[in-house]
Request: fold
Amino acid sequence: MKCRRCTAKATVQLRSHNAAFCRGCFLFFFQRNVERSIEREHMFTRDERVLVAVSGGKDSLALWDTLIELGYQTEGLYLGLGIGAYSSASQAKTERFATDHGVALHVVPLEDEADGLAIPEVAAATRRQPCAACGTFKRHYFDRAARDGGFDVLATGHNLDDEAARLLGNVLHWQLPYLAKQQPVLLPTHPRFVRKVRPLFRTSEYESATYAFLRGIDYVVEECPNAHGATQLVYKDLLNRLEHTMPGSKLAFVTDFLRRAHPLFNAAPDAGLGECERCGMPSAGELCGYCRLVAEVERRRHATAAHS
Ligand code: AMP
Ligand code: FES
Ligand code: ZN
Reply:
């Protein structure tokens, strides 16, 4: 097999693109695809400050590495979720990456924040799935860090596999409001929000893992021990089987949705967001989703203390 770009011996085969590349040309291809997504979707420019949410996994570290290589102005954000050894290992890898690349990293351990609540405590107190609480916490702290740091945009490492699985879930349940909001760029709906972007939305998990490996990026291989989003894993498995038989299906599913179907789903405008009474972040009600969850934890703790 020969490299599609330089005809040297190929080391990476991409069936979805019907192509094979040598190491150097694959890295070029990967970075160029990310740059094209950023430019075509008007995600951000080289004059804007980008906060990259990095979990220590392959996708977000491959994204950060690519943005640095492409000359964008980036800083990293790592949220310490307090999930035992998984969180400490991810933090160590993220810090290592930032030091090696000489880039700024903001580490926000949830235990040290004013509310002092890590994910396992919230899940235990509310008897909810950790992932549900985790999503609400991540959104709140991502938004706050981006606003406090005066960034123009927040980038996450969601990849093509994530987007395809999310799309399948939204289609299976005909979640019209979610379908309307499924886009690689979300414009702010309140002055305290920043633009949110997913530059890897056309890049598969396989491609980002290969990129991270070939660039020698040391990332956390283990998934979150909370078997994060079991349903998502079922959808991913299904899509992988489809991809195996029909290479390119995932990419077509997501990109054709965005091009042909998404314009038909009109997003209902967020009814004039106000500000949360407790934390000041944008909110449709008196309290934002994050503060409602914190209040629920406090209520349940008081109830338990009163009964013991
Ligand atoms: P996940 O929700 O775990 O699939 O992660 C999706 C994206 O959210 C990742 O690619 C990161 O950009 C970001 N992310 C997840 N966990 C963290 C974390 N602990 N700190 C900062 N960013 C994170
Ligand atoms: Fe949030 Fe696992 S990363 S519960
Ligand atoms: Zn709030």
